[in-house]
Amino acid sequence: MIEICERAEHAVRTLIKENGLKAGIAFPTGCSLNHVAAHYTPNRGDPTVLQYDDVCKVDFGTHVNGVLIL
User: Fold this and answer.
1) How many domains does the chain have?
2) Mean pLDDT throughout 54-66?
3) What is the pLDDT of residue 36?
């Protein structure tokens, strides 16, 4: 699951060309499974692997000039 979050954050950084306070990632990417509705962020070393029947919710956001884009 950590790979999903890392790929999402890498894509955001690439697309907005992270620029300090002008643009960047608004909050850590959330990647919640099954019964967890939201706000779970796997940490490096988390052994959780996405399974075939899992439901995965990915939550990420950016900010540009102080405005959150969710």
Assistant:
1) 1
2) 90
3) 92
